[in-house]
DNA sequence: ACGATGATAATCT
DNA sequence: GATTATCATCGTT
């Protein structure tokens, strides 16, 4: 069953914890999301949309429940789920997850990973394992080959500063990284931090 | 387990 | 021309 319309039509900070435990499918591969980051848009110094609408960020201003995929560091693709109403730039970056279907296919896409926990540990690894490419930017997550299943109940979560964000937006004033405590697919140095909410 | 480093190109100023 | 929401590899503890 796909997610209910309107659930994602809220600011990224509210949507982010809802996505922990969600299962995203592309084709034969499914991943259970264990780590995300919220990007609030024009008021957020860490967001691509901080300086307003540009050709790259048009998808972020689009309707919620679509994929915002962008090209990073000259060789990687990262995936966000667009949230907040159309016209507002807000999205949640998918940072890590656990492969729950299509394991063999995911392994063949990620030949450098030594263990299954490494398959989707990291935003660019996650997109590579799922097979998400730049051409998927703007895709509706309720339409094939995609599917998004939100969790029935909220998981326990921890928060902390965002990773890889330089300047103001990466500091402790923006603790907008959310993860499931103890998950093998989360970056190890903060995997067990116990500040939890909910 | 952790830190440093090179790879590599779209996007924005 | 600078910057970048990263990864894999290789070095040192």
TrEMBL record:
In the UniProt record, the signal sequence range is: none
Q: Identify the InterPro entries for this entry.
A: Formyl_transferase-like_C_sf, MPG, MPG_sf
Ordered alphabetically, the record's keywords are: DNA damage, DNA repair, Glycosidase, Hydrolase
GO BP annotations of the record are: base-excision repair
What does the record give as EC number? Answer: 3.2.2.-
Per the UniProt record, one Pfam family is Pur_DNA_glyco
GO MF assignments: alkylbase DNA N-glycosylase activity; DNA binding
* Source domain of life: Bacteria
Has keyword Transmembrane helix? no
Tell me its family.
Belongs to the DNA glycosylase MPG family.
The record's PANTHER family line, in alphabetical order, gives: DNA-3-METHYLADENINE GLYCOSYLASE (PTHR10429:SF0)
Instruction: Please state what the protein is called.
Output: Putative 3-methyladenine DNA glycosylase
């Amino acid at each position: 069953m796909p997610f209910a319309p309107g659930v994602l039509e809220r600011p990224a900070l509210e949507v982010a914890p809802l996505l922990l435990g969600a299962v995203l499918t592309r084709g034969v591969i499914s991943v259970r999301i264990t780590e995300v980051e919220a990007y609030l848009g024009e008021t957020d110094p860490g967001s691509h949309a901080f300086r307003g609408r540009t050709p790259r960020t048009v998808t972020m201003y689009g309707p919620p429940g679509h994929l915002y995929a962008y090209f990073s560091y000259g060789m990687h693709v990262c995936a966000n789920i667009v949230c907040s109403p159309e016209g507002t730039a807000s999205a949640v970056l998918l940072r890590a997850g656990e492969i729950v279907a299509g394991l063999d296919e995911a392994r063949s896409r990620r030949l450098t990973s030594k263990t299954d926990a490494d398959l989707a540990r990291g935003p660019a690894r996650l997109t590579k394992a799922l097979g998400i490419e730049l051409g998927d930017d703007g895709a509706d997550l309720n339409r094939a080959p995609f599917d998004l299943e939100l969790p029935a109940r909220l998981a326990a979560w921890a928060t902390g500063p965002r990773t890889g964000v330089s300047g103001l937006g990466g500091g402790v004033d923006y603790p907008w990284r959310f993860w499931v405590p103890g998950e093998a697919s989360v970056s190890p140095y903060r995997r067990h931090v116990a500040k939890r909410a909910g």
